[in-house]
Amino acid sequence: MDKAPSTRQLKVAREIQKDMAEILRSKGMVAFGGAMVTVSEVRVSPDLSLAKTYVSIFPSAKAEEVMKILNENVKAYRGELGHKVGKQFRIVPEINFYLDSSLDYAEHIDQLLKM
Predict the structure, then answer these.
(1) Cα–Cα distance for residue pair 62/36, rounded to 1 Å
(2) Nearest in space to 69 (alpha carbons), one of 42, 100, 37
(3) Radius of gyration over alpha carbons of the chain, in Å?
(4) Other residues' Cβ atoms within 10 Å of the Cβ of residue 58
(5) Which of 35, 24, 16, 40 is closest to 103 using CA atoms?
(6) Predicted TM-score (pTM) of this structure
(7) Closest of 1, 38, 3, 34 to residue 22, by C-alpha
(8) CA angle, corner 99, sides to 94 and 105, nearest 5?
(9) At a CB cut-off of 8 Å and minimum separation 6, what does 78 contact?
(10) How would you write the pLDDT of the chain (115 residues) with one tens digit per residue?
């Protein structure tokens, strides 16, 4: 069983979430084929070297295309993140993007409840 994240992990995750959201928002929807990308959660490894970044994508039909764009540009996003947090963090964590499908799940449950 995983132990709970430390206060430091939570602070770093919050900062990365805020800054990654700003970086992705600054790209605009055009960069993601007209999809809206939201950083829903960031989980940082105990050694602060890896940031699992969960994104939700609307409309969900574009999810695969947007995930491809995000993963192709991950080095550039990490570089931009480094410029934003470079004074605060000794190392800028590696970034891995994951699709957060909780919105789809909630929509699915909503549909089932309406039956």
Answers:
(1) 9
(2) 37
(3) 15
(4) 15
(5) 40
(6) 0.86
(7) 38
(8) 150
(9) 92, 94, 95
(10) 467 889 999 999 999 999 999 999 999 999 999 999 999 999 999 999 999 999 999 888 899 999 999 999 999 999 999 999 988 888 899 999 999 977 667 777 777 888 7
